[in-house]
Amino acid sequence: MTDGVDRLVAAGRALRSAAPHRLPDALRRVLRAHWAVQEAELLLADYGLTVLLPVTSGPNGPEPVPVRGSAPGQAFGSQQPYVEEPAVGRARAHLPVTVRGDRLGVLSLTLPVPDRERLAELTELAELLGHEVVVAQRDTDLYVRARRKDRLTLAAEMQWQLLPARSCARAEYALGAQLEPAYSVFGDTFDWTTSAGRLTVCVTDGMGEGIDAALLTNLGINALRNARRAGVPIEDQAALADQALYAQYRGAAHLAVLLADIELGTGRMRIVDAGSPQLLLQRDRALSPVDLDAQLPRGMFDGTRYTAQEFTLLPGDRLLFVSDGVHGVAAPGGEAYGERALARAAGNASLLPAADVPAAVLRELAGHRGRPEPDDDALVMCLDWFGRRPAPSDARSPGTGPHSRDPADRQRRYGGDDTEADENAHESQE
Question: Which chain positions lie within coiled-coil regions (predicted)?
Fold first, then answer.
């Protein structure tokens, strides 16, 4: 094995053998021994995606770093290494810590100016660290605590624990979502799951406030997951979740849900619209609502039946899922944050990757309502659809940019794995 591979193997072994709360210490020892790193700091993105917070076990640690306008924030936003050279022969390297498209934070290092090979090794080490953090946080609160700029309400704690991640990516798609107010959200949430051939996503809006809304949403999401894992179609998933909610609340509480299932090989999407979340399509730079048949929210009546509508995605499409805390917000003058304002926000974010779009839209929403704190939960989910890579004989000239079909460009921007896509395509053909 080459020296670089040996170093990464040794680093991986050290991280895996460390106690969950000792990962940062094990990381620093490895970096000093193999890469002559003087200082190392793991920074995790907070729930509001506004600052990067240091992972520390003590009460006093380094100050939070803003995501916007800082060197670590540059690495976090671009998902590329960012190197500063503040002194002769020394560098400050900031490396994205990302797992399958889920952007956790940044690893900041002080070390001798690295060459391209060393920087590539350290970037790979940062990714390996991300995987270890995801595993370790099942057994310690260290990393969950580090993400908190402020204290979470109990309802928000329940909602964030319910979520799958805030972003993910594969060769066929990239997803990102964000909730507001991040530290006191109570009724809105989202969910997604992927397999070799399918992607299922949902956006929910539970009635009520505080703990009552959080409990309702938790029951609804877990009922949908239970039905989905039984392998039934989405209209039956909707019906089974409806039964579970009605059995518990007898119609006194209900859950608005937008549920979609996408066939990865073809882009064929089946949708069940049951309530207030809306779906908008950005195609060829134009944003328009997807016309869906509104059906009853889950849990409103006993024995409700649901039907799915079909829609086909094209490579380059962008979907925005928004809750009523977005499209229903009024400005101080009374103007609703409707289709025109959403189109403007989507246009301003058109060059951003999917993971960055929800926060960008929510920032414009805050400007529209004229005050920082919302009256209601607000949720935005963005799905960029790339489709499966065509066979070489059918390949067209690839484009570039955030909606590019070029696999290399997709991977640079979103971290998609084209090898996995090829394997999945082979499975679907079989």
Answer: none
Rg (CA), the chain: 22
Question: Do residues 201 and 383 touch, judged by C-beta distance below 8 A?
Answer: yes
Going by pLDDT thresholds of 50, 70 and 90, the confidence category of residue 334 is: low
CB half-sphere exposure, 240, CA atoms < 13 A: 17
Alpha carbon separation from 50 to 54, 360, 409 (Å, rounded) = 13, 11, 27
What H or E segment, with its residue span, contains residue 411? helix 407-414
Work out the mean pLDDT of the chain and round it to a whole number.
Answer: 88
CA 314, CA 419: separation in Å to the nearest integer? Answer: 21
How far is 362 from 88, CA to CA, in rounded Å?
42
Segment 40-45 shows an average pLDDT of: 97
Amino acid (1-letter code) at residue 327 = H
List the beta strands (DSSP E) in 172-313.
Answer: 173-180, 188-194, 198-206, 255-263, 268-274, 278-283, 286-289, 309-312
Cα–Cα distance between 183 and 74 in angstroms, integer? Answer: 24
Give the count of beta carbons closer than 10 Å to the beta carbon of residue 19. Answer: 11
d(CA 111, CA 249): 59
Predicted confidence at residue 86, as pLDDT, reads: 77
Prediction pTM value = 0.87
pLDDT at 326: 86
**Burial, 180: exposed, middle or buried (Cβ in 10 Å; 0-12, 13-18, 19+)?**
buried
